[in-house]
Amino acid sequence: MNTINRLKREHQLLRSKLTIVDSALAIGSEAWFLLRETSFTFAKQLQAHHRREAQLLRVYRVALQTYEAARAAVDHAHEQASLTLLNQRLMEQPPGSLETLRPLYVALSATMRCHMEQQEAQLFPALEDILVLQELAGWQEPRVSSWLSETMTIREITSRYPGTKSVLEGLFIDSRYEGYD
Q1: CB atoms inside a 10 Å sphere around CB 7
Q2: pTM for the full predicted model
Q3: Who's near 132: CB < 8 A, 6+ residues apart?
Q4: Are the C-beta atoms of residues 64 and 119 closer than 8 Å to each other?
Q5: pLDDT tens sequence across 134-161
Q6: Cα 38 to Cα 23: distance, rounded to the nearest angstrom
């Protein structure tokens, strides 16, 4: 149940970000830059959270088909699209033009809070039930073989798997200087 607890902790983090956004909206145009930076970090955290949820749900998709209410709590497309629109408008509009964005933020905040409450009330208990049943049955998640070893360098990884270069750059890992102190 560690994965479900992690998702719950992420929900707490996302709620705290929403509280910061609400506070910035209450302050007004003086908090424009705080709102912009918080919105961008919130978008990244939300996107990562959605990926983790989707990964968990892919593993348990068959078992979740019996939980109709839980399946309804999974869609995030609207929230992600709203946040992307807000971030685009934050980049386009001059600092201080907060009144045009306020209704969008309020709607997104309400939707996000409702969605997280719905997941915690319906989806997470269903997943907990599934995990308990699997533990009782002795089921183990199929292991995925790794093509990476602990001794591989960053250069070896990027030469064998060129697609990893963008991921490593996103983590600020520079393969040219990896291993040199």
Answers
A1: 19
A2: 0.66
A3: none
A4: no
A5: 776 665 555 656 677 777 777 888 888 8
A6: 11
